[in-house]
Design goal:
The chain is mainly alpha-helical. It is 78% helix and 0% strand. It has helices at residues 2-5, 8-17, 22-44, 50-63, 72-79, 81-90, 94-106, 109-132. Helix 3 crosses helix 4. The chain is elongated, with a radius of gyration of 27 Å.
């Protein structure tokens, strides 16, 4: 269960592709690159151009998903995501656990309702046919 819910791969995918998180990550990454470039540039007496650095950061972030895969095992192990999730879920009350699962089923709620309605209707037709003698 924990391997399917919260993994390094899913975490990084969200950070690098979700339109609500990617800009924040890109800004954070750019700030660190600018600090690093500023320190390096002082040593050789250059001033890094902010627009060039922004373009480099944007290209790096766009290419990062193709190269980040090698760190997933390390991140999963180091952060202990599986163990943390397991411990937290074991400590949940029934109501809390239900609230965790409910959004998962909400996505398919209409499908489940319609499937139940169709099956119920079919079962009712069969039962009526058996009772009236239409089905022998």
């Amino acid at each position: 269960f924990a391997d399917k819910i919260l993994t390094s791969e899913k975490l990084w995918h969200s950070i690098l592709t979700d339109p609500t998180t990617k800009p924040g990550f890109e800004k954070l990454f750019q700030n660190h690159v600018m600090k690093f470039a500023g320190k390096v540039a002082r040593g050789v007496r250059l001033i890094p151009d902010a627009s060039v650095m922004a373009m480099a950061v944007s290209k790096a972030v766009d290419k990062l998903p193709a190269h980040i895969g090698v760190v997933h095992d390390y991140v999963d192990k180091t952060l202990g995501l599986r163990e943390t999730l397991r411990i937290q879920m074991e400590g949940m009350t029934s109501a809390q656990f239900e609230r965790v699962l409910h959004p998962i089923f909400e996505e398919d709620e209409l499908t489940l309702i319609l499937a139940g309605a169709v099956l119920g209707f079919a079962a009712g037709l069969v039962q009526q046919g058996l009772e009236t003698g239409s089905i022998k």
